[in-house]
Amino acid sequence: MKDYINPDFKHMVHGGDYNPDQWLDYPEVLSEDMRLMKLSHCNEMTLGIFAWSALEPEEGKFNFEWMDKVMDDIHKAGGKVVLATPSGAKPAWMAQKYVETLRVNDRGERYWYGERHNHCYTSPIYREKVKLINQKLAERYKDHPALIGWHLSNEYGGECYCDLCKEAFRGWLKKKYGSIKNLNGQWWNAFWSHTFNGFDQINPPSPLGENHVHGLKLDWKRFVSEQTADFVKHEYDSVKSITPNIPVTANLMGFYQGLNYRDIVKVIDYVSWDNYPNWVNTDHDINVAQYSAMCHDLMRSLNCRPFYLMESTPSHVNWKPYNKLKRPKVHMLSSLQAVAHGSDSVQYFQWRKSRGSFEKFHGAVVDHVGNEHTRVFKDVTAVGERLEKLDEVVGTVVRPKVALMYDWDNQWAIDMAGGFQLNDKKISQTNCQYYNAFWSKGVDIDIIGADSHDFNDYKVIFAPMRYMVSDALGEKLKSFVKNGGTLVCTYMTGMVNENDLCHLGGWPGAGLREVFGIWNEEIDTLNPGESNTVKLKDGTVVKAVDYCELIHSEGAEVLAEYDSDFYKGMPAYTVNRYGEGKAYYIAFRDDGSFTKQMINDILDEVGVSSEFDGALKKGVTAHSRTDGENTYVFLENYTPDDFETETGILWTEVDTGKTLTGKFTLSGYGTLILKK
Ligand code: GAL
Q1: pLDDT band at 284, cuts 50/70/90?
Q2: What does the DSSP 8-state code read for residue 487?
Q3: Are residues 357 and 444 in the same domain?
Q4: Which of 289, 234, 282 is nearest to 119 (CA)?
Q5: Is the pLDDT of residue 47 over 90?
Q6: What are phi and psi of 290, to 5 degrees?
Q7: Are residues 375 and 451 located together in one domain of the fold?
Q8: Is 0.85 topped by the overall pTM?
Q9: Is the CB of residue 277 below 6 angstroms from any atom belonging to ligand 1?
Q10: 349 C-beta closer than 6 A to ligand 1
Q11: Is residue 93 part of a domain?
Q12: In a domain, 671, yes or no
């Protein structure tokens, strides 16, 4: 049961963004790159990102000779190429001649030429130019032996408010709502006299116009996401029609809030993403590792397939307030973390530091000194050597029994809502709190969407702050529990429907009141520094912060009650048996310790544990991949100290072939890759 991104290349990919177009006047540098690529155990170059002006220096005048040579040289040196379409940055001639390709901001101002990621995704001229250059690239290199993948554009994102986009938005709304009357109802437009007579009266949200109609704002974000996906599809089709067997990706950005990545994943073959955690080499690194792990899981779970770590830095970045170096051992650990979560690559931004402009001090495999005698080059080489021993892991998948539910539009709706803690509802912190509990236990999880995943693949679903619940999702959750699943939800569940209209008739709405056997009457937002206490049945007292809902049991068993304030004695934590399954409701936010214990208890109850049988400690975790027969466990230590543990299983260390059982030591910042 292996799932290869490219069945013609069954090795870990190790390489990164390569910009020979910046060095065409330095041929000696380009030939040195090939020597260094081999030396560093890199086997891939991601070529052509932002190379449009080198490929088409003037409109209609193309120059591929330099790229022909680079492709051939990489091939001769034993490397492969993930070839980028150049649409992440456009040439100056295009902006000068076709002004419509430039974006317009939400105040109606058109940008000047400059920067990157700055083009209108709706513009027919931009689309035409992109298609032309993409097809030329595909035609030219379709049979090139080095080509193993396509990399569409770069980090799609951003918004354009030009007239073309406005018109497209109105068309999108018309298609969604059918009539203006329906739209008025769904956006609750009688409020502040906002009733529209026609779609042509509607503008995107703007500080100059409307910025508080939730239905409008949510639909605009959905439109931007779908319009971007439509552009991605346009690029996809342009290369796929010529190279049907070459897998296509776009490099994504974890929890980036500008797009719903579930729209994008529908129009690419495989996921790749760019990860820049802030490793600092203190205890704080454990939090960094947990957040980075959660992002890997989110990205992998988009289609539950292996993915590529398309960009990471081998040392430091240049855009954080403090650009600290990765400490010894951390590069190996952070690279293998991606593999542990399902990546079949470790790739870098960037291969070689540019000589000038904004990224000249960004970390790279090859520094300005230009040789292999650097600490970073050696770190990269060590990663390459290790990845070469992991062929059997390539194509293995991650198949958890536990899921955390996350949807972009749910977060958008929560973030834009009035009330609660106005400026930060804490959905990201809540997700981290939940995720960290699984991570600390070494339990694999998927991060799933309401529409995109089959709930029956999981024994238990945790859906914290699931504010937006459509009737369809309500039904889906209901049957999940009815059929024996365990569902865990929290404060702010089922308050609104998919158009951000409040559910009437008592929360949690969309049929979930019956599933949880509770009614949520009110929600109390505590001031910073304030807390309440919650008493569990066994007498344990835990702290409640931020949110306390005033819920009533309507058949649910009460597992904990509030211990103070005017709602003392009301339920704070309940469980309801529903059909064959159970539904837990947590009415309050805690500082993390209750969440951790509750998750441990529920995982024990449903019989889900780590694939590693030994003890873990703070900062040490385990993640697994499988080919259906063998299980590969990555044991990762994010602390500087060696850790002694014990296993009752007979394992084989994948990269050394040695067997391992009983007591053993995992070194500080070390990773062991074990097979059972
Ligand atoms: C990424 C981008 C790269 C490079 C990198 C620097 O977001 O895709 O082109 O700029 O950041 O960290």
Answers
A1: confident
A2: E
A3: no
A4: 234
A5: yes
A6: -65, -45
A7: no
A8: yes
A9: no
A10: yes
A11: yes
A12: yes
Straight-line distance from the first to the last Cα atom of the chain, in angstroms, rounded to the nearest whole number: 16
Do the domain assignments include residue 205? no
Spatial separation of the C-alpha atoms in residues 141 and 70, rounded to whole Å: 12
Question: Is the residue at 163 inside a domain?
Answer: no
Strand partners, 16: 45, 348
DSSP assignment of 320-363: SSS-PPPPTTHHHHHHHHHHHTTBSEEEES-SB--SSSTTTTS-
Residue 282 has pLDDT above 90, yes or no: no
Indicate which residue's Cα is closest to atom 1 of ligand 1: 274
Residues 146 and 262 in one domain: yes
Same domain, 33 and 114: yes
Owner of token pair 């150049």: 86
Domain count, the chain: 3
User: How far does Cα 522 stand from its chain's mean position?
Assistant: 33
Of 311, 316, 357, 361, the one to substitute when testing ligand 1's pocket (max ligand atoms within 8 A of C-beta) is 311
568 pLDDT higher than 70: yes
pLDDT tier at 466 (50, 70, 90 boundaries)? Answer: very high
pLDDT classification of 88: cutoffs 50, 70, 90: very high
> Does residue 280 surpass a pLDDT of 90?
no
Q: Which positions are annotated as active-site residues?
A: 155, 311
Shared domain for 311 and 457, answered yes or no, is no
What value does the mean pLDDT of the chain take? 97
Domain housing 656: 620-675
Whether residues 91 and 66 share a domain: the answer is yes
Tell me the per-residue pLDDT of 510-560, one tens digit each, with 9 for 90 and over. 999 999 999 999 999 999 999 999 999 999 999 999 999 999 999 999 999
Q: Tokens 């299980």 correspond to what residue?
A: 631
Read off the pLDDT of residues 112-161 as tens digits, 9 standing for 90 and up. Answer: 999 999 999 999 999 999 999 999 999 999 999 999 999 999 999 999 99
584-619 CB burial, b ≥16 within 10 A, e <16: bbbbbbbebebbbebbeebbeebebebbbbbebeeb
CB-ligand 1 contact for 274 (6 Å cutoff): yes
Q: What is the DSSP letter of 267?
A: G
Residue 279 is predicted with a pLDDT of: 87
Is there a single domain that holds both residue 601 and residue 628? no
Burial 149-182 (b: 16+ CB within 10 A, else e): bbbbbbbbebbbbbebbbebbbebbeeebeebee
Distance from C-alpha of 624 to C-alpha of 627, rounded to nearest angstrom: 11
The residue behind tokens 């329906």 is 182
Average pLDDT over residues 96-105: 98
Q: Is the CB of 117 under 6 A from ligand 1?
A: no
Name the pLDDT band for 281 (thresholds 50, 70, 90). low
